[in-house]
Design goal:
The protein is an alpha/beta fold. It has a domain at 1-87 and 203-278: Rossmann fold. It has seven helices and ten strands. The chain has a six-stranded mixed beta sheet with strand order 6-7-8-3-9-10, sandwiched between helices. A four-stranded antiparallel beta sheet has the order 2-1-4-5, covered by helices on one side. Strand 1 (18-26) and strand 2 form a beta hairpin. Bound molecules: adenosine-5'-triphosphate and magnesium ion.
Length: 278
């Protein structure tokens, strides 16, 4: 079930689709990070991106967000080249960006308020989102009064309230304990399946990628290229029963086999660099 990841320049993109075409990025001689990366994020899909540590995943998100530009190639949304940041594409990083002196409610409505959006409409949306991620009753709490998992959910809705076309999530659950992570997975599924937002989700956990995604791309070690794209044909709505289905285990096996090679290469590269440092 491999999806093609070769650039097809003659194709007219679907509206809302995000695409990387022949993207190269280097941070200087010997610091080549991305090498001919081609991938597609269809509108309304949940696309996961997995790759070895340091291979260039955050660099890819920074390119999609418009924070940095590729050296060669382009990033497109709706067929138009991304040239800078925009509320079309919002990033949620793993570090918290909540304003510590504002309450959950104030943090949630901050973005649209600054943009001068209609207060009533914003308040209605904020309330719905807060309830969707189980934070109802905590509106007046400050970030320091929320648990780590609650803060991550607050980050999510703070981005969602701006109604981005694409939500870019850079390992948003990294560092959370297993139980909190499971709760977060349930919430992200609920958010995705009820809002229909397009999601790009970076994760190092293969099981998580298969459980959440409609497709997953696996990157090679640095300089990163797409090694394989996998269509995840598990039904929606997703729930934890899918984790034990035969199809889930088949897909997980395929993912493990794909990354096994790259993990071995990353390990040898690390051993080599330790040898040269001695
Ligand atoms: N602004 C920069 N200047 C120089 N080097 C950079 C810069 N940004 C990233 N790099 C280098 O590019 C490589 C890829 O970094 P990146 O953060 O994209 O990897 P990653 O896959 O997200 O890693 P991780 O799994 O640890 O999050 C790393 O070797 C990093 O040191
Ligand atoms: Mg990263």
């Amino acid at each position: 079930m491999a999806v093609t990841h070769m650039a097809r320049f003659e194709e007219i993109p679907e509206p809302g689709e995000m695409e990387l075409r022949g993207v190269y990025k280097s941070f200087g001689p010997g610091k080549e990070v991305l090498q001919d990366v081609n991938l597609k994020i269809p509108k309304g899909s949940f696309t996961c991106l997995c790759g070895p540590s340091g291979c260039g995943k955050t660099t890819l998100i920074n390119i999609m967000a418009g924070f940095i530009q590729p050296d060669i190639g382009e990033c497109l949304l709706d067929g138009r080249t991304v040239t800078g940041p925009s509320s079309d594409r919002l990033v949620v990083f793993q570090e918290t960006a909540l304003l510590p002196w504002k309450t959950l409610w104030e943090n949630t409505i901050y973005g649209p308020m600054v943009q001068g959006k209609d207060l009533m409409e914003v308040a209605e949306r904020a309330e719905a989102l807060i309830n969707m991620v189980g934070l109802g009753g905590f509106e007046e709490s400050y970030p320091s009064q929320l648990s780590g998992g609650m803060q991550r959910r607050a980050e999510l809705i703070r981005a969602l309230i701006n109604e981005p076309k694409v939500l870019l999530l850079d390992e948003p659950f990294r560092g959370l304990d297993a139980m909190t992570r499971q709760i977060m997975q349930e919430y992200i599924i609920r958010v995705f399946e009820s809002t229909g937002v397009t999601v790009l989700f970076i994760t190092a956990e293969l099981e998580e990628a298969i459980f959440l995604g409609d497709r997953a791309y696996f990157l090679t070690v640095r300089p990163a290229q797409v090694k394989k794209g996998l269509v995840i044909d598990l039904p929606r709505p997703r729930n934890f029963q899918h984790l034990t289905s035969r199809r889930f285990l088949e897909l997980e096996r395929e993912a493990i086999d794909t990354v096994d090679d790259e993990a071995k290469k990353a390990f040898s590269a690390m051993m080599e660099s330790q040898k040269t440092r001695r």
